Amino acid sequence: MSTADLTIDLGALAQNWRALDAMSRAETGAVVKANGYGLGVERVAKVLAQAGARRFFVAVAEEGAALRQALGPGPEINVFSGHMEGDTALIRDHALVPMLNSIDQMLRHVEALPGHAFGVQLDSGMNRLGMEPAEWAALRDIALGQGPRLIMSHLACADEPDHPMNAQQLRVFKEMTADLDVPLSLASTGGILLGPAYHFDVTRPGIGVYGGRPFAEARPVVHLDVPVIQIRELEPGETVGYGNTWGAQRRTRLATIAAGYGDGLIRAMGPRAQVFADGRRCPVVGRVSMDLITVDITDLDHDPADVQLLGADQGVDDLADAAGTIGYEILTSLGARHARRFIE
Amino acid sequence: MSTADLTIDLGALAQNWRALDAMSRAETGAVVKANGYGLGVERVAKVLAQAGARRFFVAVAEEGAALRQALGPGPEINVFSGHMEGDTALIRDHALVPMLNSIDQMLRHVEALPGHAFGVQLDSGMNRLGMEPAEWAALRDIALGQGPRLIMSHLACADEPDHPMNAQQLRVFKEMTADLDVPLSLASTGGILLGPAYHFDVTRPGIGVYGGRPFAEARPVVHLDVPVIQIRELEPGETVGYGNTWGAQRRTRLATIAAGYGDGLIRAMGPRAQVFADGRRCPVVGRVSMDLITVDITDLDHDPADVQLLGADQGVDDLADAAGTIGYEILTSLGARHARRFIE
């Protein structure tokens, strides 16, 4: 067995969802886009449905179709990218609810699928997806006449509770939805943590469910253990890996492990990353290769058969810090070559 | 259709392999690890076999098993990680040739599969995989008695032709293999370009086949076109995306496209990346999100239906430069959400 072992703790996942659910009086949905943040949407969504989620969010209609197959009829599946050209059959056949982002999408939807459920995404200042205030003002009465299932917007800076953008987007969202009798949604994980003013009727936690910041109390969901291929001794001055970027300062025991950026372990993490063996940290040395990483195990008192990259000692955010990115990207990058094991 | 369209030009792939093949008198193999550098090993390997490759290289035994299923009996499949614990059945059942990296692996192999083909990987200075000179000296006569099919090593700095490490590794490899009557291999793409002294009996091109540096004449193999979801107008001062990291300096036309780091487009590329619309460059603005990227299209004279991230105007190395990485990682990160299309 020379591939890494990726263990996904579905019990921790469900606990994280329940903890986020308990933080608001709103209905709690679940964001399962990008293949359930890289973990496997089928298993992830089923566990969250068992935990009580009745409303799921995906990025594109193709994901919605796969999710419908996993969940069967019943749960509502909202598609953030709305109703794009070519999406009609998927939306119809899998009973998806597109979150319409523009007048173009609204026209496409009502022409192609009159009477079919939809929601509306508003832009409250992030300038990424959703109708602008002026666009919405022009379309609002027509849209409301068609009975939208949900009206939502997305916060740009919810991970920074003190950022003035949060209150500003809240104010714009309230202005755009004043006096509407339609379920409203503004908060993903960060928004839930901002407090009740941001909760409205439906929350949409994503990263917190999967164990990442800003949900500090999240239980770790992913554990990644990588087998050691080979251990060697280096004399001081010997160099390691591509470009000779690391040289031994002392006699060094070096382990080569069977994973690399070809497994989604971001190459940029090289100079700052570490792995753990029985709870003791071992620094990564030299460049991360496609299939291999080299680790300084000099300070261990044994030769490990495998080392841990993700787990109790090091979470997705720790590894993200080493790679100069965010936990989300660590998760969605987890590669296909890992052997995946789900525990409940 | 709201997912990106990844087109893989198998004709260009075969041409790149033939061009690298023509650069040496050695037998030319092909490295197809990490799912054929992320492109799809089954199609990639079949095309390379048609082009004439008879020897393939993968990272782990699991990949070898998948490759054998694609290619059928005949071609030799070498496994860089050697014979690890748990690999025996895969090696036996799929007629794989493990490149043994240590005395431990040699013992495991001859005990578990006496008479089964193997090769030897030597460490000539990279300190990543392969037997050290002292280890090899102790084992050499025993190994040779078992009839290895190939003896190889790997260069750490082949992308830098003037790096003294190249000549040093060449010298060590020659010393370790002096007077052997076994096929030898030292060169991957970079080594082929270093010239005949590095070619020996078998070359192992990887990145050059897939269209990447250092093979400057490589034809581009991957084309990535991403649909536009929505276009909006911004007033000067409006901000875009997570963390408000980008603000409009002028009236700006902004396109939101349906791909992000959840599709393997490395998040770090944000501040420096660009996309192309009908050959005109449009800078990425704001942070790359999981499923979305925002692009400044103010200078276009039309509203594009899609934009290109990889293709004739921008290759994997250009995008790698923007992301602070190498073309290899751009390729192996290409995500599962892209619709893949192979052309010949």
Instruction: Please estimate the helix content of chain A.
Output: 25-40%
Which percent range describes the beta-strand content of chain A?
Answer: 15-25%
CATH superfamily of the largest domain in chain A: Alanine racemase
Distance between the termini of chain A: 23 Å
- Spans of at least 5 consecutive residues with low confidence of chain A: none
For the largest beta-sheet of chain A, the strand count, sense and barrel status come to: 8 strands, mixed
Domains of chain A (count): 2
E-strand count of chain A: 19
Can you count the helices of chain A? Answer: 11
What's the CATH class label of the largest domain in chain A?
Answer: Alpha Beta
Do you know the CATH architecture of the largest domain in chain A? Alpha-Beta Barrel
The CATH topology of the largest domain in chain A turns out to be: TIM Barrel
Whole-number radius of gyration of chain A?
Answer: 23 Å
The multimeric state of the shown protein is homodimer
Largest protein-protein interface: A-B, 74 and 74 residues
SSE succession of chain A: EHEEHHEHEHEHEHEHEHEEEEEEEEEHHE
In brief:
2 copies of one chain form a homodimer. The first copy, chain A, folds into 2 domains: 10-203, TIM Barrel, CATH 3.20.20.10; 222-343, Lyase, Ornithine Decarboxylase, Chain A, domain 1 (Beta Barrel), CATH 2.40.37.
Based on the model shown, name its key terms:
homodimer, 344 residues, alpha/beta, TIM Barrel, Lyase, Ornithine Decarboxylase, Chain A, domain 1, 7-stranded parallel beta sheet
Give a description of the structure.
Two copies of one chain form a homodimer. Chain A is of the alpha/beta class and 344 residues long. The first copy, chain A, folds into two domains: 194 residues, Alpha-Beta Barrel (TIM Barrel); 122 residues, Lyase, Ornithine Decarboxylase, Chain A, domain 1 (Beta Barrel), CATH 2.40.37. In chain A, 30% of the residues lie in helices and 22% in strands. Chain A is built from eleven helices and 19 strands. In chain A, the strands form four sheets. In chain A, strands 1, 11, 14, 15, 16, 17, 18 and 19 form an eight-stranded mixed beta sheet that branches. A seven-stranded parallel beta sheet of chain A has the order 3-4-5-6-7-8-9. In chain A, strands 2-10 form a two-stranded parallel ribbon. In chain A, β8, α8 and β9 form a beta-alpha-beta unit. In chain A, α1 packs across α3. Chain A is elongated, with a radius of gyration of 23 Å. The model of chain A has no long low-confidence stretch (mean pLDDT 97).
